[in-house]
Amino acid sequence: MQVSIVQYDISWEDKSTSQAYMNAMLDASPPHEHGFVLVPELCDVGFSMNLETIVDDRTGEWARQRAIRDRVWIQYGFADRDEHGRGLNCTAIADPSGRVHDRYTKVHPFSHGLESKHYAGGDRLVLVEVGDLLVCPMICYDLRFPELWRLARRAGAQAFAIGASWPAVRHEHWRSLLIARAIENQAFVIGCNRCGSDPHLDYAGGSLIIDPTGTVLAEADDTPTLLQADIDPSAADGWRNEFRCHDDVHEALLGTIEVVRSNPA
Asked: Does pTM surpass 0.90?
């Protein structure tokens, strides 16, 4: 299976320009049919708290149409609201027919960056069968909470796909933690970080595709990049069967969370 990451400089709160940029990158190097495409957190507006401006259906419609056009799976980031009007930082996967699977809401809003004042946290994990690969979507700050990833691994996740707006000042944390999550969960980790800048922060890109042993298969620099690598979905289970470290996990230490095995919406 081919994995593609669209790393680019998001146009601040400008969906039309951002979507056109992503389209141009994908048109220039079309992904393989039935491959997996990952774009950043809040993929066409940037890390904005301006819910009045950014919450609408255009992001999902773009992802659905792009998935149909290229016959691929696309994980995209977008904002929504809950029943109380609070923001939700979400990601969802559209399949090659354009159907959208259950969305994941970021469990850990970034309180240091005041995200938690505008966005409510989610309370469940989502697993999506992407061809022969069981993928768990994650979002940015979730990377710092390994217990969440371990719960997904316990539920069967073979790969984690995380879209982010990870600041340049902590770039080394991004890289180190992605590799650690791959090693400790014996899973593929696909991490898409934006590059460029917004009115508040600079971003260093550094998107990565990592195999279940922690080996980096592909890595981007700090410029707009369509990063691609071919992966073998069976490699996660193969490595887990060969090196059975998870047999020694103390399950009582993990806690619980609802895990949804996704169906198309």
From this structure: yes
Tally Cβ neighbours within 10 Å of residue 256: 7
How is residue 86 written in tokens? Answer: 């609070």
CA distance linking residue 227 with residue 171, whole number of Å: 18
Whether the Cβ atoms of residue 162 and residue 142 lie closer than 8 Å to each other: yes
**Structural domain boundaries enclosing 193:** 2-261
List the structure tokens of 19: 């979507």
Indicate if the alpha-carbon torsion angle 208, 11, 264, 110 is positive or negative.
Answer: positive
Residues with catalytic roles: 41, 106, 140
CATH number for 30: 3.60.110.10
User: Does the CA dihedral 217-106-110-119 come out positive or negative?
Assistant: positive
User: What per-residue confidence (pLDDT) applies to 265?
Assistant: 62
Residues of the chain with pLDDT under 50: none
d(CA 93, CA 103): 7
Kindly give the pairing relationship between strand 188-193 and strand 159-164: parallel
Which residues face 138 on adjacent strands? 162
Domain count within the chain? 1
Sequence-distant (6+) residues with CB within 8 A of 212 are 182, 185, 186, 187, 188, 235, 236, 239, 240
Smallest CA-to-CA distance from 109 within 25, 31, 42, 19 is with: 42
Q: Distance between CA 140 and CA 29 in Å, rounded?
A: 26
First to last CA, the chain: 24
Q: What share of the chain in percent tops pLDDT 70? A: 99
Q: Are 52 and 238 in contact (CB under 8 A)?
A: no
d(CA 40, CA 29): 18
